[in-house]
Amino acid sequence: MRALLCLLLLLPTTAAAADYIGAAACGTCHAAELQRWQGSHHDRAMQAATPETVLGNFDNATFTKDGVTTTFSRRDGQYVVRTDGPDGALHDYRVAYTFGVAPLQQYLLELPGGRLQALSIAWDTRPRAAGGQRWFHLYPNERIDHRDVLHWSGPNQNWNYMCAECHSTDLRKNYRADGDRFETTWAALNVSCEACHGPGSAHVQWAADAKAGRAAADATRGFAVDLRQTGTWRFADGAPIAHREGPGFSTAQVETCAPCHSRHAQLAAENIPGAPLAQARLVSLLDPGRYHADGQIQDEVYEYGSFIQSRMFHVGVTCSDCHDPHSLALRAPGNALCAQCHAAATFDVAAHTHHATGSPGAQCVACHMVERTYMQIDGRRDHSLRVPRPDLSVTLGTPNACTDCHRDRTAQWAADAVAQWFGPQRRQGWHYGVALAAGRDGRPDAEQQLVRTVQDASLPAIARATAVALLLPYLGPRSLPALQTAARDPDPMVRRAAAETAIGLDAPERIGIAAPLLDDPIRTVRLEALTTLLDLPPERFDNRQRSALLRVADEYRAAQRFNADRAEAQNNLGMLELRTGNPGAARSAFDTAIRLQPTFIPAYINLADLQRLLGDEAGAEATLRKALTVQDTAAEVHHALGLALVRQKRMDEALRELRRAAELAPDTPQYAYVLAIGLHDSGDRTGAIAVLSEAQRRRPASRELLSALAQYSAENGDAAAASRWAQQLRALDD
Known about the structure:
Largest sheet: 9 strands, antiparallel
Helix content: 40-55%
């Protein structure tokens, strides 16, 4: 107690203005928790480079890739890496910090402007017998030079933006645009107690007041949020699965873990434990390339987006039900972890697993939490805790747990086995993955399937939000009511998606859906509503709506300025200024985006569009041709250049560029549609129909393509074909 009193003398605070006090201070009263945390991955998330923390071989070890030999050495008590720098030449760089600890450790190198960069050559910390104790490259199959955004010195390896928030406590990025430098600070170098609980000084004051008998009623005990679990998991008599008893379920704990365990973009420097994740973070939906159509993990998306798909989340399971939040260890080994809530007599038996007891296939996680490997050696488990659906693998091409292990067997074999074990109707029914796949692939039933998903409130919000986002190319009379309902959904992910998709509507319907969302309590919803409405003329809005647009525009500027070190943010800022009538500010933002990242193609396209609006067609063409020197396979640049040449009436050149765009991005129907119009207007009606037919084969639910095919076929004298295309078009609305 004496130590606590001494601490209080040093920290005179109030609950209204809490300060960070450090893990050692927390340990004064919470010694057991501190001891469990020490040595954990959170504790060792980031450490100063010392002989005790550096695990890699710095005894003049070398690693060669793409013609560059990197040397790891020690000099004057420091760890030094000699490798190719931002200019492509070899330089010596000091290792400032270690990053992570197992199964790999990265190293942060210093660059000017307060930048810390994560070296792409990492140390494999596994035992040698497991293939470890070696240097390896995180992108072994890609040739990456100093001009690539994935180069260790590039923006995508910048610690200040990409990594720091989740490896330190109370991280403040502090980018200074006027000097293009970072003045990044933190309360603790690693992920300490207050990274989850929030600043602790008010809690210390609460503890002192409680000790003195003068503490006021405070459910959070001086913290911003109470992270303790409420309720208890109990088995009813004879029930194979436990149910939760106790007070209402709170998502505060999951939302506290989520900022560092989700794929997202951060929009503000807010570190408020338990605050709604969507307030300051734009969480990825089940997007192609990141998730498979059925929601299984594909790219490195961490755990949150998977977990909120799970039945466990929806019945009240929280992170700490399975993980000790201080040591990060599992609550129990192997299947005993699941047996906390799933009776072993029912589930941990061969009759359920259909694998020999104790075998790898009999492990719960083998079927229900498939593992995917990221960063070459880091296995991560899918936290959607799903029932294996090899039948979906047959129809959608998604992976499944069965053929993950039985690699010599087919998905149909696995689906047949499941049907034989559990009956033909066991988990064989409709799944939202069917709808998301239809939306991704442009299938004729896409709109119907997506609407079904949006309207089913029993489905996970992230799946419904993804369905809303995928509706954009298919919007019609049938889907408008679903979009209107989504805009009023209790979940901010769904409302955000509704605001985004409303951009595909005519002005009255768009305003009807998006304008009320300018007053949404969640920032990310408001910002999405703004971007949907900005291109409409001011006279479309009443005074209250115009006032809301101005207010949210200021929020949007603040969000982009928070990320002013990123080309994406500068590009977004430029688009805002362009739409609000500030061409000079827009030009400055686009130029800054290109300076920050010369390979960032959208900034070139938007700059060219600005030049076009200002009447500088020659400048727009020059900007687009410069973009092609950076990336000559960028379909969007060829498309934009083709349109620029059309405006200059240079049709032969224009058609070449438009055709190149369609060839580079055959699954983007808009490119084929514009090319077809160009061919048609140049007199090549047959060529236009051929282009449209191929595009429609890839995207059979495109109203735009079907309408053009019907029109051009009729003009070409093919009444039968015109009728056939028109019938397909009508069928989309039946």
